[in-house]
Design goal:
Length: 433
């Protein structure tokens, strides 16, 4: 269940850094090299210098991206670039964005959540590399910079109504815009009665990780390290909690984008043979171009339909019979898991037809991911990839159902949109050694 704790957040001093838009960043895993370069150029105070700094010649054990992150963080706190709020708060967080031709607003609350992994439901598998990277950053800085994107379900929308009443008519404390032009607004809520009402409303709710699985597992690993060393929390902001943003799936504005797959490195790949093999379990319809393939895939939502593109052709693949998934995914998997499009794709196509098994996925071989189908198709047409698979989005209900079974989806099964900006509110841990 959710134990929600107000905290004294660290925030950028706008008088020193200028526009908050220039100093925030996407989550670290979306900071690709060109994004990193752009953020470095935006401002000498951009949070990317901490969450994903540049490697430099001569880096080693004593001087590296993690030691520089710690030095930068300490300097910014010392010189007033970052200021700590005087009162413990929960923070209302609204994201206004365009999706599917509509303007939408997703409303959540930023707070500290007690690290109780047995009570938090994860839905995606994680990789060792990102967890090791985030753990090294956490050890060096003893801070939280990004959020864990959490879901809960409350048809009564109690916490949402309480927060709405607390911020109505008030100007946001923080305003920023992301690279897609989406607006991010944050309000501080310090009134003890309001905070307690939010805590009570969430106290009996299960929490589900929507985004930030690596960050959450890293926080749990760091908690265990600290306990083994005999360290104890010296303030509410410490190693036994993690900064989270919680969203109610009963609220409007919950959008999930599909994450498409591109395939490379398959020895002797032959598109004709691939399609002939796929025909055993899939109905195959050839398409005249990308636009028709994409439209046919989206129209096939709910019927396990995948678009596929190769160097000189397009088609859709639609599963003939769900029953085959009991054969392709033997064991104790739930029917909810077997019915996921990503489960069908991975078991019936990537593994069975292309030999891309769980180990290959763990080692990040053969598969590249994208949320932009046009980019994926272009990569195939230019010969950088052998196949592109267009996937329909996983729903929030599917995420919760699978997580309730204690199961984890394949990596990159969901892309909640828009992402939470890193650098809006931060926490520094206080530890008694």
């Amino acid at each position: 269940m959710a134990e929600i704790i107000p905290f004294r957040g660290l925030r950028y001093n706008a008088e020193r850094v200028g526009r908050v838009t220039d100093v925030v960043s996407p989550p670290y895993d979306r900071v690709y090299p060109h994004v990193q370069e752009m953020l470095y150029e935006k401002s000498p105070y951009n949070i990317v210098r901490i969450i994903k700094g540049k490697e430099q010649p001569g880096d080693g054990a004593d001087q590296n991206v993690y030691t520089r992150a710690a030095q930068t963080f300490a300097t910014w706190r010392r010189d007033g670039t970052l200021l700590r709020d005087e009162e413990p708060s929960v923070y209302g967080y609204h994201q206004e964005y365009a999706f599917g031709g509509e303007r939408m607003t997703r409303k959540g609350v930023i707070a500290l959540g007690r690290l109780e992994p047995e009570k938090v439901h994860a839905h995606e598998r994680t990789l060792r590399g990102p967890k090791e990277d985030r753990l090294r950053l956490m050890r060096a800085t003893e801070a939280n910079f990004g959020h864990i994107f959490m879901l809960y379900s409350d048809a009564e929308r109690t916490a949402d109504r309480v927060l709405a009443a607390a911020i109505v008519g008030r100007a946001p404390l923080i305003e920023a815009e992301d690279a897609d032009g989406n607006a991010h607004r944050v309000w501080s809520v310090t009134d003890p009665a309001t905070v307690q009402a939010v805590q009570r409303a969430l106290a009996d709710k299960d929490l589900y990780i929507a985004d930030g699985h690596h960050r959450y597992e890293t926080a749990v690993n760091y908690l265990r390290e600290c306990r083994q060393k005999g360290w104890t929390p010296a303030a509410p902001e410490s190693f036994d909690v993690r900064m989270m943003t919680l969203f109610n799936v009963a609220e409007p504005g919950m959008s999930i984008r599909p994450i498409h797959r591109m395939v490379h490195g398959i020895d002797g790949f032959d598109p004709a043979r691939f399609l002939a093999d796929a025909a055993e379990h899939f109905v195959i319809d050839r398409c005249n171009g990308f636009d028709k393939m994409r439209a046919a895939t989206e129209q096939g939502r709910g019927r396990h339909t995948f678009g596929v593109a190769w160097m000189d052709g397009f088609a859709t693949l639609r599963l003939r019979d769900e029953a085959v998934m009991e054969v392709l995914l033997p064991g104790e998997w739930s029917s909810d898991y077997r019915r996921l499009d990503v489960s069908v794709l991975h078991a019936a196509i990537l593994d069975r037809l292309l030999g891309i098994d769980a180990q290959a996925l763990e080692e990040q071989r053969n598969i590249t991911y994208t949320v932009d189908p046009a980019e994926g198709v272009e990569s195939v047409l230019q010969g950088r990839e052998q196949l592109f698979f267009h996937v329909n989005a996983t729903s929030a209900d599917e995420v919760i159902r699978v997580a309730d079974h204690g199961e984890k989806m394949p990596q990159k099964s969901t892309d909640f949109y828009p992402k939470l900006l890193t650098g809006l509110v931060m926490t520094a841990m206080e530890i008694r050694r």
